[in-house]
Amino acid sequence: MEDVLMKKLGSEFMGVRKGAWTPEEDLLLKKCVEKHGEGRWHLVPTRAGVRSCSSFCVLLYVTCVVWANVRCVSASLQCLRRCRKSCRLRWLNYLKPNIKKGAFQEDEVDLIIRLHRLLGNRWSLIAGRIPGRTANDIKNFWNSCLGKKVSPNLQGVVDNKETAGSTAMEPLKQSSHTAGLKETVPTVAPSYSVIKPKPRIPSKSISFPILSKNIGTHREARREPSITHDGPDKEEDPLSWLRNLLGVEEEEDGKQKEVNEGRGQENLNSVPSNSQEGNVELLVAGCCREEEGSEEGQQWWEDMFLDEELMLGDLLGPEAGSNQSPNWVDGILE
DNA sequence: AACAACGGCAACCGCCTATAA
DNA sequence: ATTATAGGCGGTTGCCGTTGT
């Protein structure tokens, strides 16, 4: 009975609030998610709001809504009048505990540029590779800052592969040193090729070594179920499985020798398409892993950046993930 | 000091896909 | 097989603080 009423309240009687979130709303949402966990966002407004009140409050609320035309009632009655999407977005972009705020670090900027070159505007995928950063953050950062500065330079990279440097921002070294980034206003839309791997039919026996969550819940992974290889044995080291995965890909491209000999300086632009696709697979898997936000996920990150330095370095270039700040990056972050 | 322009950020919107009924 | 619903994503908008004139 009460559930039905809640549903009615949520869908019909409750006016859905918009605009900036108040601290009270944040608190309600946070408490709710901490109690019930993420997901089932359609239930969050009722869980965090009216449900916490007594039935009397519910009736009182309805009365108030009718008489007071929705406004200014929720605060006093502790009701969260937000739609599911708004709740999800607020949690993911702001309230989630491990979200990193503040300015982007040099290595993050470099990584974003590389990943954007690789993946295009698939911000959720990119965010999955940047610990603590949300897709919205990265998207905003790109649109307001990086995109304007990087695009024209990347144009030059595509046009002249000879100038393709060892880092994603190599082109910026030249321009920022000479003219300054703020002067490099883009006049031509970027035309660098972005990897959009075609879907493959995933094996039904596929299982990821480290994914407790079904990869199919990730939109990008669903759209591009690119991993067709059989999953690893459960006792097998997941990283060795990834190595094998990439190794097979490389061998198929006839690039295995190059990999073994250390192709660290090779720019992504010059990576063969099939190999790039393999890289995307790795990224997708990494994303899904990262989404869990668990300690295991954090450990995996460390594995990726430490143990698999060579592999990621091959993917992203020698300076990716490096703590050393290239001088030219300072220009970007000014 | 006042106003306009700009930039950064939070939030909304529409669409797509998966899944349950 | 069809429809409704929820989750998720990228694009876009609007607010607000900062900077320039």
Automatic annotation (TrEMBL):
Domain HTH myb-type intervals: 16-52, 96-150
GO cellular component: nucleus
Keywords, alphabetical: Activator, DNA-binding, Nucleus, Repeat, Transcription, Transcription regulation
Superkingdom assignment: Eukaryota
Transmembrane portions of the chain: none
Compartments in which it is found: Nucleus
Residue ranges, compositional bias (Polar residues): 266-276
Region Disordered, residue ranges: 217-276
InterPro entries reported for this sequence: Homeodomain-like_sf (IPR009057), Myb_dom (IPR017930), Myb_TF_plants (IPR015495), SANT/Myb (IPR001005)
MF (Gene Ontology): DNA binding
The keyword Plastid is assigned to this record: no
Biased composition (Basic and acidic residues): 217-232, 254-264
Occurrences of domain Myb-like (ranges): 13-95, 96-146
Protein name: Uncharacterized protein
